[in-house]
Amino acid sequence: MAKVELKQPIVQAIAEDVKDAASVVLVDYRGLTVAQDTELRKQMREAGIIYKVCKNTMMKRAFEGTDFAALEEHLEGPSAIAISKDDATAPARILCKFAKDAKALELKAGVVEGTLYDVNGLTELSKIPSREELLSKLLGSLQSPITNLARVLNQIAEQGGAENCEAAPAEEAPAEEAPAAEEAPAAEEAPAAE
After folding, report:
1. 122 and 141 assigned to the same domain
2. Would the pLDDT of 9 be above 50?
3. In this structure, are residues 76 and 27 in contact, taking their beta carbons and an 8 Å threshold?
C-alpha cells in the first residue's frame, strides 16, 4: 500500500471530527509529564472534548476548505488538537486553566465559531463561563423576584389577608407636589368602597 493510502483514513478521521465542531484549539504539548498528559486527557474526555496528537500535515489536509484552515500557519512543531462540538469555549477554558499549573503546555491558536484567535484571544475566551453556568445564573436572576413576591404574598396570607395588613406610611411630598399626593389616596379609596 502506498503511504497516501495509509494516511487517507487518518485525514478523514480528523476531518470528520472537525466537521461540525464549534471550536478547535491547537496546543504545544512538549514537556508535559505522563501524569499531566493523562490528567489533561481525562479532563477533556469529561467535558466531551476530543483531544488528539496528530501530524501537522494530516491536520492541514483535514482543515482544507473549512473555517479551520486559518490554523495552518500555526501548525509548526508538535501539535495536539482539542475539538469541541457543543461548548465553544470549553477547550480554551480547560486548556488555559490546565496551563496555569503545567507551564510546559502552550496554547498556539484556535478557531472558535469561525473566528481565529491567538493565545491572548483564547485566554480572554477562557474567562467566559460555560453555557450551563450562564443559564443557571439567568434562571437564578429570574427566580429571585418571583420568590420574593411569593414570600410577601405568603406573609400577607399568614396575617389574615390584606385587610389586617398595615399600609406603608406615605412619604411626605415636597410642597409643590402636595395636591397630587392628596388626590392619590382618594382615588385609591373609591374602588375599595365598591
Report:
1. no
2. yes
3. no
User: Do strands 115-117 and 23-28 pair parallel, antiparallel, or not at all (unpaired)?
Assistant: unpaired
Query: Which grid coordinates belong to 3?
Result: 503511504
> How far apart, in whole angstroms, are the C-alpha atoms of residue 144 and residue 138?
10
Q: Which amino acid is at 61?
A: R
Overall pTM surpassing 0.85 (yes/no): no
Q: Are residues 44 and 139 in the same domain?
A: no
Query: Which of 128, 144, 173 delimits the end of a domain?
Result: 128
Q: What is the DSSP string of the chain?
A: --HHHHHHHHHHHHHHHHTT-SEEEEEE-TT--HHHHHHHHHHHHHTT-EEEEE-HHHHHHHHTTSGGGGGGGG--SSEEEEEESS-TTHHHHHHHHHHHH-TT-EEEEEEETTEEE-HHHHHHHTTSPPHHHHHHHHHHHHHHHHHHHHHHHHHHHHTTSGGGSPPPPPPPPPGGGHHHHHHHHHHHHHHHH-
**78 and 139 share a domain?**
no
Which residues are CB-contacts of 146 (< 8 A; sequence separation ≥ 6)? none
Task: Render pLDDT for 48-78 as a digit per residue (tens, 0 to 9).
Answer: 999 999 888 888 888 888 888 888 888 888 8
| 192, pLDDT greater than 80 | no
pLDDT in tens, 158-172: 887 656 556 556 666
Cα–Cα distance between 172 and 146 in angstroms, integer? Answer: 30
